[in-house]
Write a structure and sequence with these properties.
Belongs to the anaerobic coproporphyrinogen-III oxidase family. HemW subfamily. It is found in: Cytoplasm. With about 425 residues, this protein is an alpha/beta fold. The chain has 2 domains: about 20-290, Aldolase class I (TIM Barrel); about 340-413, Arc Repressor Mutant, subunit A, CATH 1.10.10. It is about 40% helix and about 20% strand. It has helices at about 20-25, 55, 60-80, 105-120, 140-145, 160-165, 175-185, 205-215, 235-240, 250-265, 285-290, 315-325, 340-350, 365, 370-375, 395-400, 405-410; strands at about 30-35, 90-95, 120-130, 150-155, 190-195, 220-225, 270, 275, 295-300, 305, 310-315, 330-335, 355-360, 380-385, 390-395. The strands form 3 sheets. It has a 9-stranded mixed β-sheet with strand order 7-8-6-5-4-3-2-1-9, with helices on both faces. Strands 10-11-12 form a 3-stranded antiparallel β-sheet. It has a 3-stranded antiparallel β-sheet with strand order 13-15-14. Helix 8 packs parallel to helix 10 (about 250-265). The radius of gyration is 21 Å and the shape is globular. The relative contact order is 0.14.
């Protein structure tokens, strides 16, 4: 089932943000995330806020969803203005899910048009949609390109049929290459997403998936370790002994293979699970999260972050539709993390990126632990960035495998 929303303080129906949010927001880039909660089939490993047609019930419809999201965007623009937050052009837009391309391409284009009319786009803005290889065509990709999309992220996951079967992925493996090429022919940037560590996946299987993905010559490749969340079909299968448990050593071996093969193919890591051919082909939208910039998340269950204030929408599409129709905020709750929570979050996010964690962000007790992390070959001094020549720490390969441990050591918990 979809994941549970966190607790928080009540969110006002008019969407106004707390006093001080505007000042904290000043100077930050602004992004938009649009959640499309529909899937043709629920994958066995997925605990995202997604629904098949049979799970939706009354009051929510794929046919009216684009209009509902556009109305939330109009609400967002009013709420931000009334909160005293200066209007900013969008730096990035990302349509995620779910499977965004289950909606007609013209519906996605319509939502994007609304966003452009409300905020406009920065020059060179990155505009991405996720896609299942079987849910797009050359014609639908052209509609997206003409509407202003610049990038497509294809959910490939694996090139090996028996691995896809365990994951409940329904696309035909050969369609990935066809649609990647179609997107490239239109001038779209292309990413492919892979998952390693599926029960029953051998090292040779994973090598095959990497070789296949590299052979498509995308601009960007993401490789995520399989995390089995409680309540998913795959978790139940593991509990019953139908599939083997996750093996952390297996994950580490596959990550190391990924890094070697991707580096040999000309990709450079810029975040623990992400590699790009050039700096310009990194996912700027994901970097906006890791850098702590501002974004509005539209759609059921979507999370937003504006000037240090976090808020999240009601989870079910029917409840979401009801809020939008009533012209009130779809937010379920909000919070302003305290100083300790903000510090921990900065450690967790910035330590993961190749830009590194600024030494100036560390508290005194954490700085005293840096020498030990360097001695253990978990971090290394990174190149100084910015006009001030700010010093930073960057994870080594071993550190990327143990990123959570690095954060625990620095945070001392």
């Amino acid at each position: 089932m979809p994941s549970i929303l966190p607790d928080g303080d009540p969110a006002p129906s008019d969407g106004r943000l707390p006093e001080g949010t505007a000042a904290r927001s000043a100077g930050r880039d602004f992004s938009l995330y649009v959640h499309i909660p529909f899937c043709a089939v629920r994958c066995g490993y997925c605990d995202f806020n997604t629904y098949t047609a049979s799970e939706l019930g009354g009051g929510a419809s794929q046919a009216t969803y684009a209009n509902a999201v556009s109305r939330e965007l109009e609400f967002a623009q009013r709420a931000l203005t009334e909160s005293g937050i200066e209007s900013r052009h969008l730096s990035t837009v990302f349509f995620g899910g779910g499977t965004p391309t289950l909606l007609p391409a013209n519906d996605l284009a319509s939502v994007l048009r609304t966003a452009k009319d409300l905020w406009g786009f920065k020059d060179g803005a990155e505009i991405t949609t996720e896609a299942n290889p079987d849910s797009v065509t050359k014609e639908s990709l052209k509609i997206l390109k003409d509407a202003g999309f610049t990038r497509v992220s294809f959910g490939m996951q694996s090139a090996v049929p028996h691995v896809l079967k365990v994951l409940d992925r329904t696309h035909q493996p050969e369609n990935v290459g066809l649609m990647v090429q179609a997107a490239k022919d239109l001038g779209l940037d292309v990413s492919v997403d892979l998952i390693y560590g599926t029960p029953g996946e051998s090292l040779e299987d994973w090598k095959t998936s990497l070789e296949t993905a590299i052979g498509y010559e995308p601009d960007h490749i993401s490789a995520y370790s399989l995390i089995v969340e409680p309540g998913t079909k795959l978790a139940a299968q593991m509990r019953r002994g139908e599939v083997p448990e996750v093996d952390e050593d297996d994950h580490a071996e596959k990550y190391e293979l990924s890094d070697r093969m991707l580096a040999a193919a000309g990709f450079t890591w810029y975040e623990v699970s992400n590699w790009a051919k050039t700096e310009d082909q990194r996912s700027e939208h994901n970097l906006a999260y890791w850098r702590g910039n501002d974004w509005w998340g539209a759609g059921p269950g979507a999370h937003s972050h504006i000037g240090g204030t976090r808020f999240w929408n009601v989870k079910h599409p029917t409840a979401y539709q009801g809020r939008v129709d009533a012209l009130v905020s779809p937010a379920a709750a909000r919070e302003i993390p305290d100083e300790d929570a903000q510090y921990l979050e900065e450690l967790m996010l910035k330590v993961r990126i190749a830009e590194g964690l600024p030494l100036s962000a560390l508290r005194d007790d954490a700085r005293r632990r840096v020498a030990g992390l360097i001695a253990d070959r978990l971090v290394e001094p990174g190149p100084a960035l910015g006009a001030s020549g700010e010093k930073r720490l960057v994870l080594t390969l071993n550190g990327r495998l143990l990123a959570d441990r690095v954060v625990k050591i620095l945070a001392d918990f």
